[in-house]
């Protein structure tokens, strides 16, 4: 009987199903079009114009913006600083997160408490925490330099010296990201079957390092790859701490891509040029995703 | 090995505690400074406790100079509005992509996957131009509208709905429910884990966001908590770290308290959801 | 002795005592099955022998050597896990090689790239490869050496796990439900292979299972465990025919052994629902009379029972009845051609050979049975 019902209703249902499918996706599709697709395409188009906010008209200038980018010392520094920032934040917060995860996973006591402590920066308002860092790193009244003075070291002017500003911002970046990575690694670690560790012990891997090499590290491979790429994409987007603490200074020593894009677009209103910087940013993000999928395909297909 | 003696566990616990304190440093000093008068802060002593308890003055100054409640309210409206529309758009779309066969569904899913690759900074410039032409700068609309479409939410709900049994949907259809009713009365109630995880992810992201409000908002009436701290820092506080830290504490507190109350859900929502996505 | 000997092993998790003073001796070359329902402590016992769990009390000797407190790597045992626990990132060959590499190469020689340059590494690697290929060949894995576990069927993974265990020629094999993830036909085939491997290696083997047919078909001796204790350890036939504990009697055998409440009077005469059943036991008070389904026969007179139904199993029939006075369910196994000896409904009488009657006292311990009179060999 159910057979009969099915055959009778199926054709009618699929016409209805198509209609329902369109109706249910329509709101999302419209919002997608208006808020994501059209403006993204417009950004790409803008990058090839000389559009400035308030200008009466815009002209197609082809690749001129990109030619200017190549000459622009500020953008070159921003690119260099962004890469440097990522090159410090990503490895430090990935390895740090892994080390913390292993340390937490090594025992049963205090797991939730420690996890919460290290995760706290992830949910804290970055602007407010940047203000707290500003106080902490303040050259004269900051507790860090006060502590250094107490042991006889004259601390630098962390955020206002071009030698230390990027390192300081990167330290804040590591602080913001390490808890996030820790949680991802903890999830990866709990997914490793306990029996593999037992098997490794029986097989003669008596030292912790042997078990790490034989079981933990290889089985954490997919997690590590994911953590590395997600940390890199998060770090490339560094904006808040720069906007609050340094505005790219001193003397562009902490200029980064997104802040350069923001300044060109919304301080100088050179929207065409700002769009070109945005495309450089987008290209880096896409390159990271591409790298991730390539590496994913090549290895770590265990099961 | 799980029941190790506390003595053998002690080095591990000590190391973790030390590292934990290091991570908590900014919070500790932020709160400490918000309780101190300015002259004590300027003495740069390493004592955490204030000699003169100055919290009332510091926090009082913040409340007197800054529309704290306004900022917090704006934060609530913006986050609530964004979440409402994200769910309104993403849940039906996620259901349709997971369970319905219709022409164009493959194309739509492709668009979602493509959308996942684009950071929200990329469409910002044209959106700013658009809102400014419409005269909508400095409005809730401009703060909320760009975030109403979350391809991540569509993707997440699609994955989740895919795991719901088809028979549940068939049974609902046999019982005479329309597709719209199925979404809100059958599918969503079964999607609470995904919905809460996404809600936490979304609220944290937008409460903490500075980039878009900084572009679109000018002045205090529509400023979010993030902007509020920024304004206070540059306009009112100057070198008055006591009240600046008080403002920072006030604006950070809501999410941090919510996190401490529902840690596991927060961690699932923010980090582990991303792992699946 | 050179096998495994365990004395008074105790282990608790939190408040629950999982092992309550277990003692067990496995001779070199002997195959002992630990049989019991899930949660009886059999896996914990095995993991204590392996050194994966540390017991709270008692001692373990393997190969004549005290190993209590030693790490698993120091015990010279090999283990096959229920989930096989193969390293998913290593090939079949590399998986089998792990226990050899851990022993024949030192930490520096195991380093990637660099280790290959150190003196002695090449010779050791060659000997490992030779032994790995031999073990793999013995289990028919020769063609699969470069595959990863993810590309293997369940049965093939199981063989890799076995190869990894035998490659090292350990003092003892420990197997934790190794067949439970295989389908039924493969399970029967692999049983014989494991027995053959054990015979060839001649190594003390402890095999944990909840499947009585595995235990009875494979083991030299079966240790029946329940609630953290070994109730009885004996050869399979003995365990089946001569259980010393009511719990052993009811656990072994399918369908379950028939049990009838009984009473022994002051003279030891056993009665079921007031009816003397022709025997005297060494004891008085409440007893349990246990009878295997194949030991019950229809007769002109005997235990009164009411027919309830017949199940056809192919090679035999199961007759379901109920004791007329007690209401206790009874099962009787009959050859199909004997179907006519019973009516399809109504009351029948059942008898049994006295030598097959198992009687247990109130505490569940076996008591001896004597015929009441020479001619009363049947009820």
UniProtKB/TrEMBL annotation, chain B:
Stretches assigned to the ABC transmembrane type-1 domain: 72-262
Protein family per UniProt: Belongs to the binding-protein-dependent transport system permease family.
Bilayer topology term: Multi-pass membrane protein
Pfam family, one: BPD_transp_1
Keyword Membrane: yes
Bilayer-crossing regions: 71-95, 107-128, 140-161, 182-204, 210-232, 244-262
Keywords linked to the UniProt accession: Cell membrane, Membrane, Transmembrane, Transmembrane helix, Transport
Organism: Roseomonas indoligenes
InterPro entries xref list: MetI-like, MetI-like_sf
Main location: membrane
Subcellular location: Cell membrane
Annotated protein name in UniProt: Carbohydrate ABC transporter permease
Gene Ontology CC, one term: plasma membrane
The keyword Cell membrane is annotated on this UniProt entry: yes
GO biological process: transmembrane transport
PROSITE patterns, alphabetized: ABC_TM1
From TrEMBL, chain C:
Superkingdom of the organism of origin: Bacteria
InterPro entries linked: AAA+_ATPase, ABC_transporter-like_ATP-bd, ABC_transporter-like_CS, ABC_transpr_MalK/UgpC-like, Mo/tungstate-bd_C_term_dom, NA-bd_OB-fold, P-loop_NTPase, Transp-assoc_OB_typ2
Domain ABC transporter: 4-252
One Gene Ontology term, aspect cellular component: ATP-binding cassette (ABC) transporter complex, substrate-binding subunit-containing
Pfam families linked: ABC_tran, TOBE_2
Keywords: ATP-binding, Cell membrane, Membrane, Nucleotide-binding, Translocase, Transport
GO MF: ABC-type transporter activity; ATP binding; ATP hydrolysis activity
Keyword Transport belongs to the record: yes
Similarity comment: family membership: Belongs to the ABC transporter superfamily.
Name of the molecule in the record: ABC transporter ATP-binding protein
Protein's organism: Roseomonas indoligenes
